[in-house]
Target: Thymidylate kinase
Amino acid sequence: MKGYFFSFEGPDGAGKTTMIAKLETFLREKGFAVVSTREPGGVRIAEAIRSIILNPDHTEMDGRTEALLYAAARRQHLLEKIIPAVEAGNIVLCDRFVDSSLVYQGFARGLGVDEILQINQFAIDGYFPSLTIYFDIDPKMGLERIQKNKQREINRLDMESLSFHYKVREGYLKLAKRFAERIVTIDASKSPDEVFAMTAAVVMKRIEGR
Ligand SMILES: Nc1ncnc2c1ncn2[C@@H]1O[C@H](COP(=O)(O)OP(=O)(O)O)[C@@H](O)[C@H]1O
Ligand SMILES: Cc1cn([C@H]2C[C@H](O)[C@@H](COP(=O)(O)OP(=O)(O)O)O2)c(=O)[nH]c1=O
Model:
């Protein structure tokens, strides 16, 4: 039987990485085969593209170049890792996917959500996740969480101004309305246990209601 493709979205520090790790353990304990992965990256070529995009020295990078690089990394990751894993019956949990480009490049950087959707249609060829969980949080709270965790590297995008991060949130809220049948919003400002309980409930409902 084919598996599932679920993506997780939200501003930096919303808790995506934390919740995916917990969900992976939870689903494995229930006997499911799980593959967790992330964007941009997940496979060799996409990781190489990721290091170009996130390099703090690349200050001259043009917005469209960035959008095309994300789309290129996404295609390689999808073909090499996501689709084979779903075909083999796994539940694929992906940290960011196409919605990140729609929001960060299309909306927050002002390149146009429909323009970014168009280049991504070419990259993914209709292969959307069947469920996307959006972790909604005030971006200031998300950034404060990251600052508390000194282990995590600070990348080029973390250096953006706070107003950029507020645009990111606004973009996600618009997208959640536009793709209401696919995107489920969860209040990520709650405690880790509460956020996880809500996340697990949404995912199990989707799996059981197949
Ligand atoms: N619900 C939560 N409440 C408080 N802190 C959290 C919560 N979820 C995650 N964190 C912490 O916030 C930081 C950022 O979380 P992370 O999962 O890396 O976010 P993201 O992957 O969305 O950037 C980590 O230090 C993590 O332990
Ligand atoms: C996938 C993707 C990510 N991004 C941005 C969002 C993040 O700031 C950064 C990814 O860095 P990452 O270290 O993965 O951040 P996080 O742990 O918060 O997910 O790239 C885009 O701008 N467009 C995209 O299509």
Summary: The chain has eight helices and five strands.
